[in-house]
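User: Good morning. I'm curious how adenosine-5'-triphosphate would be positioned relative to this chain. Could you predict the structure with it bound?
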Amino acid sequence: MSSDPSSPAPAAAGASSPSRPRTESLRQASRIFRYLRPYRVRFASAWVALLIASSLGLAFPYLTGSLLDASTGRFVPLPFGGVTLSLNQIALLLVGTLGVQAFFSFFSSYGFNRCSESALADLRRETFGRILGLPMSFFAHRRVGELSSRLSADLTVIQETFTFTIPQFLRQAVLLTGGIGLIVATSWRLGGVMISTFPVLLLAAILMGRRIRGLSRSAQDHLGEGGTVVEESLHGIVNVKAFGNERFELSRYAAHLSSYLGVVLRTARLRASLVSFIIFGVFGSIVLVFWYGARLMQAGQLTFGELTRFILYTTFVGGSVASFAEVFSQVQKTLGATERVRELLDESPEVPVLEPAPRDPVPRFRGDVEFDNVVFRYPSRPDVAALRGVTLQARAGERIALVGPSGAGKSTLVSLLLRLYEPNSGQLRLDGRPADAIPLREVRGNMAIVPQEVLLFGGTVEENIRYGKPEATRDEVIAAARLAACHEFIERFPEGYQTRVGDRGVKLSGGQRQRIAIARALLKDPAILILDEATSSLDSGSEQLIQQALSVLLKDRTAFVIAHRLSTIRQVDRIYVIEDGAVTESGTHDELLAKEGGTYRRLAALQFDTPTS
Ligand code: ATP
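Assistant: Good morning! Here's the predicted structure, ligand included:
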């Protein structure tokens, strides 16, 4: 295998070393064919239909030759029994053969399409399922655009192979071997002349095809990077506009596009040379055969019909050789694409998304949480400790506030609680048990988060609330919405709970989105609640509604509140002040306020505008 050294190496270790033998890469690619297995009977029937159709295609030059000989009065016996047919009979046979060929072509084409589309749908589903189930550490290295490019571009390449390349290969293989066989059987001398031109053509096709493969992978990578820019900038279009960075984004995109263009133009030049070389070779060999055949005819060793047959077979055979170059370069492209999809399929998921969800309910936790000397470094930044020996605890039902400057490690602490990441040392305990000994499903099944920035999906309001508990009844959804003070504003929409939200629906205000998130969490009814308090100031009406909804939500469960406004956490059981990845103070609001020179006291003074001494 020869992959382009200039194309970026995939992130997964050892996924594509340039020295890896070609058989290995073929073996890997063949794993993708596994997806055709469920459709093997239909696939095999499509092959048989194709075989019949292609074989019948070979009868065409033969019968045409016989037709011409019949016209000159030379009746050439047909094979299989030496029957001599009249001109009209041969013409009828020709039409009949074409009809049967068309019939089988339909079945083979439809069969191949059906199998490959179904197999591809399975592969797409599995790839997306795999991506969803991968741990956060995987996403740290990947960008969204790159991953969606794999789901679309790479899988489309594989699809083309299943649908067009494989049938094409088979058809051409039949025409090639059958054509050569028939040529040699009729006149070995002419056949010999023609076949002698093949090795050169094949060698050129293979060499150039290899190079095209390397370039294709590199082109896909550049296109993927461009796609990432589009996704990122459209996703954050408000930011792009607010900063007036439209031209900057365009130039980032244009830079990737021009690299892409450079590579595809190189590929196009190679392809063009390959095609023109092959055209020259094919027509050259036809001329050669024509010339030699004409001489044989002159010498009376060949009839006009036989020569016609030869020319037609040579065109067939030449056409197949030429198309092998195309097939070969498509196969090379597919090998590149399968490599990248396979890298994804080989990652080990933390959540087995592709297996059916367990039916038994998640056992409910009491809600004791304990961080014991937890040290943590992000996999993408192993040199900096985001948490440097954090020890804190929350007993069941307690409300804990995390306070501290930006970048101190509050969100990181919460990510570890959700087990999005595992500590490097120290231990997280839930209900007294080491968290890593508890199935992930139970851990996350007992937690809910009300984030600062609430993400609503493109669906109805009801679907968005139900996200907290997909199996909830309509009444449960409405009850949760009432408790979260959402019901009134939802009812005011003309379509009520069926109102579409998100990109193409109504836009909800920040406060309304927060209340939807609270309703989601209420519906989930978790033992441990994480609340990332909104920093944006809401109007006092909204604020009051949210505080009411929160007080319902916080009841009877352990709660971690990442507090930005200290006014909201006066009533919590304990406050932990986090600074630079470590707990520096802890206590109640009053205790911490009383602490001379303490960080909390200083922060409180800033926010409440009260003197500290
Ligand atoms: P804020 O109040 O601004 O949200 P925070 O206290 O929640 O801040 P964290 O988001 O936990 O702070 O960040 C703690 C440290 O970890 C910071 O130095 C941050 O740069 C780093 N960090 C956060 N997320 C990642 C990540 N995914 N990869 C690498 N480093 C990260």
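Residues 140, 378, 380-381, 386, 404, 406-412 surround adenosine-5'-triphosphate (CB under 6 Å). Residues 1-21 have pLDDT under 50 and may be disordered.
Let me know if you'd like a different ligand tried.
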